[in-house]
């Protein structure tokens, strides 16, 4: 590009920055004796930098959005602040008389580290844990928070089987996670895998198993 043309292109850019329209810029150049073909070429070169910037901006935003999504899916783990549902219950009370509720199980899962689980990156299915407690069935869905429901769900990945005295005892202890770990090691609480090993691995159950050993 000739030196004179560089100067013209820069002046055209400055004209656009000042708020002039393409038509106004073209008329200004025509008044100086430039032909329309040349004017179109100069304006195109003046806009090229803006075009590249817009393309870069769009690509950057797309990468940023993907990055945020990946971070949210795999790395945005945090333990929820949950109050122990039995915090006001007398330590000398009869644990066997306590009726287990979904809130109890959500709190217990939060304490043993189930919040570290993640969605299956292939089909985006959320981790799901089942419970069978003294014959009563529940299931918990792990997402931004842990939600537990009464009943059975055929999509659970693992299942905890225990007597309700073990669950209520863990809640009444000073360290629910350690209490559950001890019960698992002693066999008083059984952890049964339901999904295949690949699914369990993709959802991060390995870290949960390790914490219970």
Can you give keywords for this protein?
single chain; 213 residues; alpha+beta; Nonspecific Lipid-transfer Protein, Chain A; 2 domains; five-stranded mixed beta sheet; 5 strands; 51% helix; rod-shaped
Q: Concise description?
A:
The protein has 213 residues and is of the alpha+beta class. The chain has 8 helices and 5 strands; from the N terminus they run ααααββββααβαα.
Tell me about this structure:
- With 213 residues, the protein is α+β, with helices and mostly antiparallel strands.
- 51% of the residues lie in helices and 13% in strands.
- The chain contains 8 helices and 5 strands.
- The chain has helices at residues 3-17, 22-31, 36-74, 102-112, 164-172, 176-186, 197-202, 205-211; strands at residues 128-133, 136-142, 146-150, 158-162, 189-193.
- It has a 5-stranded mixed β-sheet.
- α2 packs antiparallel against α3 (36-74) and α5 (164-172) packs antiparallel against α6 (176-186).
- The longest helix is centred in the first third of the chain and has 39 residues, at 36-74.
- The model has no long low-confidence stretch (mean pLDDT 83).
Structural class by SSE content: alpha+beta
Strand order of the largest sheet: 3-2-1-4-5
User: pLDDT average, as an integer?
Assistant: 83
- Could you please say which CATH topology of the largest domain applies here? Nonspecific Lipid-transfer Protein, Chain A
Rg to the nearest angstrom?
32 Å
Total of domains: 2
In CATH, the architecture of the largest domain is 2-Layer Sandwich
Percent in strands: 5-15%
Helix content estimate: 40-55%
Largest sheet: 5 strands, mixed
The count of DSSP E runs of length 2 or more, i.e. the number of strands, is 5
Main CATH class of the largest domain: Alpha Beta
Q: CATH superfamily of the largest domain, please?
A: SCP2 sterol-binding domain
Question: What is the H/E order?
Answer: HHHHEEEEHHEHH
Poorly predicted regions are none
How many H/I helices?
Answer: 8
Distance between the termini: 72 Å
Shape: rod-shaped
């Amino acid at each position: 590009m000739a030196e004179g043309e560089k100067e013209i292109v820069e002046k055209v850019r400055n004209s656009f920055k000042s708020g002039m329209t393409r038509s106004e810029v073209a008329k200004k150049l025509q008044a100086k004796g430039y032909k329309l073909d040349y004017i179109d070429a100069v304006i195109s070169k003046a806009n090229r930098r803006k075009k590249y910037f817009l393309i870069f901006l769009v690509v950057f935003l797309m990468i940023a959005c993907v990055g945020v999504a990946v971070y949210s899916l795999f790395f945005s783990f945090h333990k929820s602040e949950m109050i122990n549902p039995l915090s006001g219950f007398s330590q000398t009370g009869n644990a066997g008389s306590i009726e287990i509720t979904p809130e109890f199980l959500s709190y217990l899962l939060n304490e043993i580290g189930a919040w570290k689980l993640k969605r299956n990156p292939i089909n985006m299915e959320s981790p799901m844990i089942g419970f069978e407690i003294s014959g009563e069935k529940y299931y918990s869905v792990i997402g931004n928070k842990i939600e537990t429901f009464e009943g059975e769900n055929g999509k659970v990945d693992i299942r905890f089987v225990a007597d309700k005295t073990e669950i209520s005892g863990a809640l009444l202890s000073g360290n629910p996670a350690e209490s559950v770990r001890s019960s698992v090691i002693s066999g008083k609480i059984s952890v049964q895998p339901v999904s295949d090993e690949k699914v369990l691995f993709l959802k991060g159950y390995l870290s949960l198993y390790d914490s219970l050993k």
